Structure formats: C-alpha cells, structure tokens
Amino acid sequence: MLECAVRWAAPVDEPEMRALLDDRERERYDRFMRAEDKARFVTGRFLARTVLADAVGLAPQSIRFTTDCPHCGGTHGKPRLPGSGLDFSLSHSGDRVVLVLAEGAEVGVDVERESDRDIDRLAEMVLTAAEREALNAMDDRRRGFHAYWSRKEALLKATGHGLAAPMTAIHVSSPDAPAEVIAWEGDAAVSPVRLADLTPGPGYAASAAVLTDRPLRITETRFD
Ligand SMILES: CC(C)(COP(=O)(O)OP(=O)(O)OC[C@H]1O[C@@H](n2cnc3c(N)ncnc32)[C@H](O)[C@@H]1OP(=O)(O)O)[C@@H](O)C(=O)NCCC(=O)NCCS
Predict the structure, then answer these.
(1) Distance from residue 178's CA to the centre of ligand 1 (Å)
(2) Which residues touch 10 (CB under 8 Å, ≥6 apart)?
(3) How confident is the model at residue 16 (pLDDT cuts 50, 70, 90)?
(4) How much distance in Å is there from the Cα of 78 to the middle of ligand 1?
C-alpha cells in the first residue's frame, strides 16, 4: 500500500501566511491582480510548506521549493522539495485548494470547478474519440467532462509535464467507472500509474495520480 495524504483548504490570505513566502513567491503574489488569485496562491504554498515541514521535522519558514522546468530551464515547473523523498502536488480552483503528498512516488492532483465552458470545443482538445462518444451518452455532460479533465491533468502534473503534453494522448476510464488509465501514448506517457477520484464536494471534480504500481490508501482531510 502506498499512503497518499490529501489536504483540502479554503483560500484565505492572512499576513502570517504571506510572511512564509520566499522572494520569488512574493513577486508572483504581487503580480496577481485579483484578490482571489492571491488567496489561492498563498493558501497553496502555505498548505504545502506547513504539511511538508511537519513531515520532515523542519520549521515551515525553512522549506524552500524548487520549480525548475525540465523543458526550458525556467522556474515555472512542478514545485518540489529535493532530498526529502517526498513528492507533492498542488491545485486550486474556485474556493478549493488541495495538496497531495506521498513518499517514494511522484504525485499529481487537479481540482476543477465545473463551469459553463464550451464543452464540445474543449472536448476536441482534451478527449479521445472514444471518450467523446462516452461523454455524449452521459446525462450530465458537464460533470463528465470535468471528471475526465481532472483525471488527465492530475496525470500530467504527476509527471511534471502539465499542459505542455497533449491530453488527447491519454485514454482514461469513463467518469462512471473507477478511475484508471486505459492507454497513454507519446513522450509524456508513464507506467505504472494509479489514478483515483477525490471528493471535492458538489460542483467540483478532483483526481489524484500516483506513479506507482502499489495500491493507494488515500486519506482526505480538511486543513484548518
Ligand atoms: C501545471 C498546470 C497544468 C497548472 O494548471 P492550472 O489548472 O492553471 O492550475 P492548478 O491550480 O491545477 O495547478 C497549479 C499548481 O500546479 C503546480 N505546477 C506548476 N507547474 C507544474 C508542472 N509542470 N507540473 C506539475 N505541477 C505544476 C504549482 O504548484 C501550481 O500552483 P502555484 O500556482 O501555487 O504555483 C499549468 O500551469 C501548466 O501546464 N504548466 C506547464 C506549462 C509548461 O511547462 N509549458 C512549457 C514551458 S517551456
């Protein structure tokens, strides 16, 4: 069994949370125009720092993340805590912020607020032909689309590719079936991988991906 800790939080923006940001994070925080974007960002980094500090036995202010992009050498890549043996992933949408943490395996998480996006147009960019057919047969296409989306984005966040890799190269199970990868082609493809749907509450879809063949034991808790 691989233990996978999921922490949910609501976005808030308090001075003691901002105080933990490092210089580069502070610059990013300052560049966000909207208060809700600032809150989602600062809450995510606070959640990650607090949970990781606890896991490694250090003070939160001493936790420094790397964010190297393997493609261009820039600093917008997957946040990591090198040397810890731990991997984590953050996601935020609407009034949900979520962190997934595991030891010894790469993890990815994604939460999506269900919105009135143009599903037919987006489905062309996100889903395989078989998935589009399955979606069209669903009663709640909005829920189905966001479930597909969050599963695929969680996978691409586990590998660190993010949306730089095509979602249409991944074929996942139907939203009504247990989450699993059916097929994955292309450079970003990895195996073995485990996929699980999370419980973000009504109006949201969320999934976690873990690059392991071990069965997952997922514990979801609220962080207050
Ligand atoms: C990662 C990505 C999918 C996030 O998309 P999103 O739906 O807007 O946001 P989410 O809330 O789900 O996730 C954001 C979090 O993912 C994490 N993240 C950023 N880049 C990541 C990556 N490459 N892999 C995994 N996680 C990543 C960060 O923790 C970020 O939170 P932050 O704002 O606190 O830093 C998107 O930013 C992306 O595709 N980035 C990579 C693009 C890229 O590499 N292009 C090539 C450049 S050379």
Answers:
(1) 25
(2) 43, 95, 96, 97
(3) very high
(4) 6
Q: Tens digit of pLDDT for each residue in 82-95?
A: 999 999 999 999 99
For residue 54, the CA-to-ligand 1 centroid distance in Å is 24
Which of 21, 163, 187, 190 gets mutated to test ligand 1 (max ligand atoms within 8 A of its CB)? 163
Substitution candidate for ligand 1 out of 36, 97, 157 with most atoms within 8 A of CB: 157
pLDDT tens, position by position, 138-149: 999 999 999 999
- Does the C-beta of 71 come closer than 6 Å to ligand 1? yes
The domain ranges of the chain are 2-222
Looking at domain 2-222, its CATH architecture is Alpha-Beta Complex (3.90)
Contact 206, 110 (CB under 8 A): yes
Residue 92: strand pairing partners: 97
Largest CA distance in the chain: 51
For 24-48, the pLDDT digits (tens) are: 999 999 999 999 999 999 999 999 9
Centroid of chain to Cα 160: 10
Q: Is the CB of 69 under 6 A from ligand 1?
A: yes
Sorted by sequence, the CB contacts under 8 Å of residue 59 that are 6+ apart come out as 53
pLDDT of residue 73 exceeding 90, the answer is: no
Q: Give the Cβ contact number of residue 64 at 10 Å.
A: 11
Write out pLDDT tens, residues 157-201: 999 999 999 999 999 999 999 999 999 999 999 999 999 999 999
